[in-house]
Design goal:
Layout (H helix, E strand, L loop, with lengths): L1 E5 L2 E16 L14 E4 L2 H6 L10 H4 L2 E18 L2 E18 L11 E4 L22 H12 L4 E9 L4 E2 L6 E21 L2 E12 L3 E2 L5 E4 L8 H13 L9 E4 L17 E10 L6 H7 L4 E11 L4 H6 L8 E7 L15 H4 L40 E4 L7 E12 L4 E20 L8 E2 L2 E2 H11 L25 H8 L5 H6 L9 E2 L2 E2 L3 H8 L1 H5 L3 H8 L40 E24 L2 E14 L23 E2 L6 E9 L9 H7 L7 E5 L63
Parallel strand pairs: 3-6, 17-24
Antiparallel strand pairs: 1-2, 2-4, 4-5, 5-9, 6-7, 7-8, 7-16, 9-10, 9-11, 10-14, 12-13, 14-15, 15-18, 18-19, 19-24, 20-21, 22-23, 24-25, 25-26, 25-27, 27-28
Helix pairs in contact: 9-11
Length: about 775
């Protein structure tokens, strides 16, 4: 409703109601055969997502989960405009109340509320298959062989499901009951601005806004927080800094973590994160329309034909409903994801063990569908959950989780621009300019269960020791050279090859491995009757597959045994306390798979980036029926890998230093050219007669776009996880880019006339759009 209050004052009042509803239905993870306790998923979740799952229908969570969203938004806005002399004052405000009802059947990652048996995983077999490799198998093929081996034999690498709960005691729901929440999110905004005509050729605009988007409040307190031993919500940056500081001193920081309802967190929190009250948005801009009649300036600027504009503004982003409504459901509690890693056979499995973990489980003791029955073991949930719930300590271990950082907030963006617009003639105009943007506090999910690769013992960091072994194996040269000189582990008759041990015994010793593995018995072993000459040799031989595949997360997890001493039933490794949430917890009846089988993703606001661009625009209006606009942009987008707020299961390559992932954004294009045209033929404009009606009145609007390519991403052989120890590749992945160890000989530009092979570069298509 618009009201003219006076001759110079106008008021605009708006009210809106928006209903947004969507629903995803699915048949779920239906077992393929009658009697199966869960759906079979050969090669893991990512294989199914990539479209090459060996099943008659899809059972990966991202495609089988069910969800719905029912949002009802009420908005009231009032704006006042006052014209006073050379000033146009504007001020006003907005209040919006969003009510959102959400329901779902999964944990936001790869675990649904129906049992699924992964036969192999996204990054390999998921169990220890080193003992079944043929003697002629190349090291580079071990991952695929192991994955195919367990899939073909029906060996369960991971048995998983998600239980749901409700009520203040988190009572267990009946099977196939979805989790739900109903949240209210208030939003406030006020602003003031002035457009001041300083003189006929200069206009100055300035203003200030303030926004407050409050955290969501759930009707029944159904929001889960990640907490420490004292029940206080985790500060992501502080937690990771403490881990890093301890590791640099050769110490361990790995406190028990738990999950609690928001009302049970920090003495009774109201919100899932702290409100942010500092969203003040200043802006200022100036426009100058020079008016020179003659002389050099008259030729350059013309008489009123040029406008120079420049400005600055700060804006704050909005928080997506995914983080406000969905994520508070995803921590262990209302949804309790459970994974049995290395499920054991009831007849030949490790005595007293149900879920042995990826290192202790082997083809000889793991659960095999058919041979060991049709229902693989999954930990049994309790009727209620304690508050806080410390998985692996006072309740069964949890699958991958997700939570909001206590300092979660909207991003902050400073924007600058400077443009010069010049009218060339009555139909043609050109504009050149600069656009800059600097963004901070950007959405950045982080898996806090990352390998502390800076752990220092014997005067050496693990990262340096690992890199030295990689170099010795030839992995810094090429994928083909990585492990190419390693002798076969077995002779042609199937017996162990002594030369295999001799090769690893000849590797240069690394101080970290010598200090970290001493005293547990790990280094006292042998292979093919040849004793290990050093702890480095023992680690390199036992973890050869992980070294050659750059599986840092798996390598460290195998060795992270909490200082345990080797025995026939006890794995051993590092001589210090357990450092990872997924590592076994000694003495706990729930701790065979640690606290969390993979990790927990904290959605934090710690990313940053910038964008800088120069552009040229040429516009032409109605020249013989042709109107066009063409733009050329030269730009660079840098940052810490921006992702949409709907992203789950993602982390940064180095959680301890987000800036280590700073570089070209995945969407960066250096050059972009666009041409938009509208052509109206001058013929038969009056559309008289049948010829005019047939041939007149037409308009043609072609669009042409050309751009340079997107940045090249150089992965290791395991894809976007493991190589920096940031994720397991099963429930979490990153956007890894390899560190070059030799000069770049392939450049960053297009390569023409390169012969394709293996289905890559052998086919293409051309698409035209009008």
């Amino acid at each position: 409703m618009t009201t003219n209050i006076s001759t110079n004052t106008t008021n605009d009042f708006h009210y809106s109601y928006l209903r947004n509803f969507w629903q995803w239905g699915s048949g779920g993870d239906t077992p393929q055969l009658a009697g199966l306790g869960g759906a079979l998923e050969p090669l893991g979740e990512q294989a199914a997502a990539a479209g090459f799952a060996l099943t008659p229908y899809n059972v990966n969570t991202q495609n089988t989960r069910t969800r719905f969203w029912d949002g009802q938004d009420n908005m009231v806005r009032d704006d006042v405009s006052v014209l006073h002399g050379n000033h146009l004052f504007q001020f006003g405000g907005t209040y919006q109340r969003n009510w959102d009802f959400h329901e779902r059947s999964d944990n936001g990652g790869g675990i649904n509320f129906q049992p699924v048996y992964q036969l192999g995983t996204s990054v390999g077999a998921g169990i220890n298959v080193a003992g079944v490799f043929p003697s002629t198998l190349n090291a580079a093929d071990q991952t695929n062989f192991g994955n195919d081996y367990v899939a073909a034999l029906g060996i369960v690498s991971i048995a998983q499901t998600a239980f749901t709960r409700a009520g203040a005691q988190l009572n267990l729901n009946p099977p196939l009951t979805p989790a739900q929440d109903k949240s209210t999110i208030p939003y406030y905004n006020v602003y003031f601005s002035d457009s001041w005509r300083v003189k006929p050729s200069i206009t100055l605009t300035y203003g200030l806004g303030w926004t407050l988007e409050m955290p969501p409040v759930e009707a029944l307190g159904r929001q889960v927080e990640l907490v420490d031993q004292a029940g206080q919500q985790i500060d992501t940056e502080a937690y990771l800094k403490a881990r890093e500081a301890a590791a640099l001193q050769g110490q361990v920081y790995n406190p028990e973590l738990g999950f609690a309802l928001v009302g049970n967190t920090g003495g009774g929190q109201k919100y899932p994160y702290n409100p942010f009250y500092g969203a003040f948005s200043p802006r200022i801009a100036v426009a100058w329309n020079p008016n020179y009649i003659d002389g050099l300036l008259g030729h350059v600027f013309g008489q009123g034909k040029t406008v120079i504009r420049g400005g600055y503004s700060r804006i704050f982003g909005r928080l997506n409903g995914v983080d406000l409504v969905l994520v508070p459901l995803l921590g262990t509690g209302l949804i309790q994801p459970v994974q049995c890693v290395g499920a054991q056979s009831p007849t030949v499995g490790i005595p007293g063990t149900t879920c042995a973990g990826p290192n202790a489980a082997t083809p000889a003791n793991a659960f095999r569908v058919g041979t060991d029955g049709l229902t693989a073991p999954i930990p049994t949930p309790s009727a209620t959950l304690p508050q806080p719930d410390f998985p692996g300590i006072n309740a069964i271990a949890a699958g991958a989780g997700e939570a909001l950082d206590r300092n979660f907030r909207p991003n902050e963006s400073d924007q600058f621009d400077l443009t010069i617009q010049r009218q060339l003639n009555s139909k043609t105009m050109i504009e050149v300019g600069y656009i800059g943007r600097r963004i901070t506090d950007e959405y950045q999910p982080i898996n806090i269960n990352a390998v502390p690769f800076m752990m220092t013992l014997g005067g050496q960091q693990f990262a340096k020791a690992y890199a030295a072994v990689e170099k010795s194996l030839g992995c810094v040269t090429s994928v083909a050279a990585c492990g190419a000189n390693v002798p076969a582990a077995k002779l042609s008759n199937g017996s162990a090859n002594p030369a295999y041990t001799a090769y690893f015994n000849a590797l240069p010793t690394q101080a970290f491995f010598e200090a970290a593995l001493a005293g547990t018995g790990y280094c006292n072993g042998s292979y093919a009757g040849v004793a290990f000459a050093s702890c480095t040799a023992a680690a390199a031989l036992n973890e050869a597959g992980n070294f050659e595949q750059q599986n840092v997360w798996n390598l460290w997890s195998d060795l992270d045994q909490g200082g345990a001493t080797c025995s026939a039933t006890q794995a051993c490794g590092f001589n210090f306390a357990r450092t990872m949430l997924n590592s076994p917890i000694p003495g706990s009846p729930f701790g065979a798979n640690g606290q969390l089988t993979s990790g927990v993703g904290e959605n934090a606001s710690v990313g940053y980036g910038n964008y800088n661009a120069g552009f040229v625009t040429l516009k032409m209006a109605d020249w013989h029926g042709l109107t066009l606009q063409q733009n050329f942009t030269y730009s660079k987008a840098l940052g810490t890998v921006s992702v949409v707020q709907a992203t789950s299961g993602f982390t940064t390559p180095n959680p301890y230093d987000v800036g280590a992932g700073y570089g070209l954004q995945p969407f960066d294009r250096k050059f972009v050219y666009n041409l938009f045209t509208v052509y109206e033929p001058p013929f038969f404009k009056g559309q008289h007669g049948w010829q005019g009606r047939l041939l007149g009145g037409w308009s043609f609007a072609p669009i042409f776009t050309a751009a340079s390519g997107l940045p090249l991403e150089l992965n290791t052989s395991n894809g976007d996880a493991q190589a920096f120890g940031e994720a397991d590749g099963v429930n979490f992945a990153a956007d890894e880019n390899a560190v070059l160890t030799c000069p770049n000989t392939f450049g960053s530009s297009r390569h023409n006339n390169v012969t394709g092979s293996g289905g890559i570069g052998t086919a293409g298509r051309l698409e035209l759009h009008a």
